[in-house]
């Protein structure tokens, strides 16, 4: 196969919104080891979240995590507080959410919906179809590790920072003429939190260590150097707490003395101190609480304690850095980058601080690495960081948008491994959801609704208005197909395909004919959390459901073709897809949220959810050239909704405006998000209150502004758009390591809003089609771009003509 191209061989485009006309690109050379790389990103000297004082509140503390263990570091000079989490400490325990009255009630509920008696249907769902109990269990804190410093004096030269490059919190200050340094990290290889305290004068470290917790618990000692916090999680909705947990802190002093006393350890005049913290529970699986947390923590501590702090640090960095360093982004740096982070957030909207946009992008990648690793629970509404027994919205898995948004950056931001906990949860839900499908719908396959928890509840909860949405599991399945499109990993697809197939089977059996239109629809359902009439959301076949099911059915058919499986079922799924209700354009020119044109009269015309735009993003069913009318209608809907929203909703809208190829409007949402109203001092996203999906939505949105891709599985062809939504605020920059569909890694450099070059690293044999501009205001290209073969292991350098 000839892989050498000249300028006439390729017509393609990749430009930002600053460019007035399309630019043609050419593959200048195709080589393996010696292709000229994109200009290296400038050294990212300040990828740190910085403070000049200790945290006074939780949203000023700095997050550490190894996927399973989390800590919020306050950095006090007289009292240090590390608020601790372990990802399986949840209220309640294994139980069955199914409502025994549901199956008998379902036919009547459907009749009420089709008779347009929506309120009556909603009330019947609340009475006879909602899960038992009607709410799920909350995620809960373990407690705190407390270090009290009895000789503390007023500190000067204070500095506290989270360095994203090495996932380490460092605290420096001077007191009593002594310079103190603390270094904390959460090690995934050794499964411990590591605290290292040093001073520049021997014998200067004196403190008392203990645990505290709002849980039912006790603090005891073990030997001369180990503290134990032993407890049980709380009850909720009548379900007693059943998660037994233990936190162990082992103190290792250099010089000085240790004295253990009644759940405390006193450190006197040490030269240095290392603290190792291990936390474990009795959780083995959502239906198995037979593990021994005492044994688990003892074994973990024994292993970690056999190593020096230098070797622990080296193992941590060897694990973390290869993940984090895959992607670099440089948008330029101004003097504002040297300010404390809260000051930068307060002034970003009116300042010139492009580096804060970079910091927040990389902070999202850091948070995903820190809260979602193979073998852990997936990131919940707060990742793994929560100080409460009853956090907002239970800090659960809200799967009508928020959990999915948590994983939007995983693939484009080159962290595919972080998807594994989500896939593990899908495997669990395929089991609990199978029982739900049978018990409440009389169907095969599996289903789950708008929320789930550690116990993998699959029932509609929180009341019909919010919970009567059956496509939560179907949306989760999109992550499986996305993973294949980005990685072309057939074995992973083979492993997860049964869950896709059985999710589709449920809908093939339960979709019903809408007597008004003849189309197949979900019934009952809702357009997530939005009312079409006052206090009523229940309906049939909302636009989002139909779009999600088109994606699910397509994924099943494509997967089965790739794996050469289930030919008969493919036909069933294809037939059902063809009969789904189509997207409709309303009288205001908007994409309708419901089958009926209710949008302009709905109670909350500026509702935070933009569910009906799923087909634009994260889906790819709406495109400026394939579906121009729907593309214009989606834009109109977004204009009607407006920009003002909760933090996570702004994160979604950044992605939507990027898909609309409007980089300047996407950047307006970036600026609206990076304000004190929507971003906490420590860069956590604010709904408000804290909700981490906004962080992840932002990171995905920045990636989407710089690179978009589409994959055709039948032809193994990747359409690639470079800088499709570059804003005027970022005229010069470069990015390395973004991932595109088709197992492609992309490096990009641009100046004055125009592409300088892009280097494409092919990980698999594919056909590559770099595209002309697909900006909404650009004329249709008259010349089709050339598709050329890209071979695994080769680099392709694209430059402007």
Order of strands, main sheet, comes to: 2-7-8-9-10-17-14-13-12
Give average pLDDT, whole number: 93
Reported for the largest beta sheet, the result is: 9 strands, antiparallel
Task: List segments where confidence is low: pLDDT < 50 over at least 5 consecutive residues.
Answer: 1-44, 773-783
The radius of gyration is 27 Å
- Alpha-beta classification: alpha+beta
Helix content: 25-40%
Question: In whole angstroms, how far apart are the ends?
Answer: 25 Å
Shape label: globular
Quote the beta fraction: 15-25%
Number of helices: 17
The total of beta strands comes to 30
Short description:
29% of the residues lie in helices and 23% in strands.
Throw out a few tags for this protein.
801 residues, alpha+beta, 29% helix
SSE inventory with pairings:
Blueprint: E1 25-31, E2 48-51, E3 62-65, E4 69-73, E5 79-86, H1 102-114, H2 118-128, E6 143-148, E7 156-163, E8 168-175, E9 178-187, E10 192-199, E11 205-212, E12 216-222, E13 226-232, E14 244-254, E15 257-261, E16 264-270, E17 272-281, H3 293-305, H4 309-324, E18 328-330, H5 341-347, H6 354-371, E19 397-398, H7 402-406, H8 420-441, E20 451-452, H9 464-467, H10 472-487, H11 490-510, E21 512-513, E22 520-521, H12 543-563, H13 567-578, H14 628-641, H15 647-659, H16 663-673, H17 693-706, E23 707-712, E24 717-722, E25 733-740, E26 744-751, E27 754-762, E28 766-770, E29 788-790, E30 795-800
Parallel strand pairs: 24-28
Antiparallel strand pairs: 1-30, 2-7, 3-4, 4-5, 5-6, 6-11, 7-8, 8-9, 9-10, 10-17, 11-16, 12-13, 13-14, 14-17, 15-16, 18-25, 19-20, 21-22, 23-24, 25-26, 26-27, 27-30, 28-29
Helix pairs in contact: 1-2, 6-17, 8-10, 8-11, 10-11, 10-12, 11-12, 12-13, 15-16, 15-17
């Amino acid at each position: 196969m000839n892989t050498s191209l000249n300028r006439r061989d390729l017509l393609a485009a990749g430009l930002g919104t600053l460019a007035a006309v399309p630019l043609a690109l050419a593959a200048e050379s195709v080589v393996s080891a010696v292709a000229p790389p994109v200009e290296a990103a400038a050294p990212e000297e300040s990828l740190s979240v910085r403070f000049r004082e200790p945290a006074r509140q939780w949203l000023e503390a700095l997050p550490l995590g190894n996927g399973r263990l989390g800590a919020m570091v306050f950095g006090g000079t007289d009292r240090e507080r590390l608020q601790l989490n372990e990802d399986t400490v949840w209220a309640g325990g294994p139980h069955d959410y199914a409502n025994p009255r549901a199956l008998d009630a379902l036919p009547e509920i459907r009749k009420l919906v089709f008779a347009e008696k929506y309120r009556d249907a909603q009330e019947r769902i609340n009475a006879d179809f909602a899960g038992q109990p009607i709410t799920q269990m909350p995620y809960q804190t373990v407690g705190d590790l407390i270090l009290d410093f009895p000789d503390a004096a007023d500190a000067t030269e204070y500095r506290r920072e989270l360095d994203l490059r090495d996932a380490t919190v460092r605290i420096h200050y001077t007191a009593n003429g002594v310079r103190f340094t603390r270094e904390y990290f959460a090690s995934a290889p050794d499964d411990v939190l590591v605290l290292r305290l040093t001073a520049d004068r021997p014998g200067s470290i004196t403190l008392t260590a203990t645990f505290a917790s709002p849980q039912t618990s006790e603090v005891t000692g073990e030997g001369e150097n180990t503290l134990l916090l032993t407890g049980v999680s709380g009850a909720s909705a009548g379900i007693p707490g059943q998660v037994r947990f233990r936190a162990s802190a082992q103190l290792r002093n250099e010089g000085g003395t240790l004295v253990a006393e009644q759940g405390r350890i006193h450190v006197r005049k040490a030269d240095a101190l290392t603290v190792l913290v291990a936390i474990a529970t009795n959780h083995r699986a959502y239906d198995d609480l037979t593990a021994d947390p005492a044994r688990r923590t003892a074994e973990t501590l024994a292993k970690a304690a056999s190593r020096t702090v230098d070797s622990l640090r080296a193992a941590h960095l060897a694990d973390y850095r290869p993940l984090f360093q895959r992607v670099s982004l440089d948008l330029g740096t101004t003097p504002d980058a040297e300010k404390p982070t809260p000051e930068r957030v307060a002034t970003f909207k009116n300042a010139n601080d492009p580096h804060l946009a970079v910091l927040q992008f990389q902070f999202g990648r850091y948070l995903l690495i820190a809260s979602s690793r193979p073998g852990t629970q997936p990131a919940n509404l707060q990742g793994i960081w929560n100080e409460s027994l009853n956090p907002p919205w239970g800090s659960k898995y809200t799967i009508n948008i928020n959990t999915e948004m948590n994983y939007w950056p995983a693939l484009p931001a080159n962290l595919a491994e972080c998807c594994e906990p989500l896939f593990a949860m899908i495997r669990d839900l395929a089991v609990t959801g199978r029982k739900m499908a049978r018990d409440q719908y009389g169907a095969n396959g599996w289903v789950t609704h708008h929320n789930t928890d550690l116990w993998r509840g699959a029932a509609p909860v929180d009341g019909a208005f919010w919970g009567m949405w059956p496509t939560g599991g179907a949306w989760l399945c999109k992550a499986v197909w996305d993973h294949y499109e980005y990685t072309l990993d057939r074995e992973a697809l083979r492993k997860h395909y049964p869950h896709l197939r059985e999710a589709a089977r449920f809908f093939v059996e339960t979709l019903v004919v809408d007597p008004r239109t003849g189309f197949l629809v979900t019934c009952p359902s809702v357009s997530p959390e939005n009312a079409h009439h006052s206090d009523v959301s229940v309906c049939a076949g909302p636009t989002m459901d139909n779009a999600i099911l088109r994606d699910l059915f397509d994924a099943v058919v494509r997967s089965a073709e790739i794996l050469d499986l289930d030919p008969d079922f493919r036909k069933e799924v294809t037939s059902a897809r063809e009969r789904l209700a189509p997207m409709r354009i309303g009288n205001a020119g908007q994409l309708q949220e419901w089958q009926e044109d209710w949008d302009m009269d709905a109670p909350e015309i500026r509702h935070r959810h933009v569910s009906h735009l799923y087909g634009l993003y994260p889906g790819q069913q709406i495109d400026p050239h394939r579906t121009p009318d729907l593309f214009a209608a989606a834009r109109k809907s977004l204009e009607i909704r407006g920009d003002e929203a909760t933090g996570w909703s702004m994160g979604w809208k950044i992605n939507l405006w990027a898909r609309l190829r409007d980089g300047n409007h996407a950047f307006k949402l970036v600026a609206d998000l990076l304000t004190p109203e929507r971003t906490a001092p420590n860069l956590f996203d604010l709904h408000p209150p804290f909700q981490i999906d906004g962080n992840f939505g932002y990171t995905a949105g920045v990636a989407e502004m710089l690179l978009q891709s589409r994959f055709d599985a039948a032809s193994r062809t990747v359409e690639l758009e470079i800088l499709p939504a570059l804003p005027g605020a970022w005229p010069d920059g470069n990015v390395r390591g973004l991932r595109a569909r088709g197992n492609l890694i992309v490096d990009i450099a641009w100046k004055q809003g125009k592409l300088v070059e892009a280097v494409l690293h092919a990980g698999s044999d594919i056909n590559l089609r770099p595209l002309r501009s697909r900006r909404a205001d650009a004329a249709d290209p008259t010349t089709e771009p050339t598709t050329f073969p890209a071979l695994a292991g080769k680099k392709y350098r694209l430059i402007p003509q």
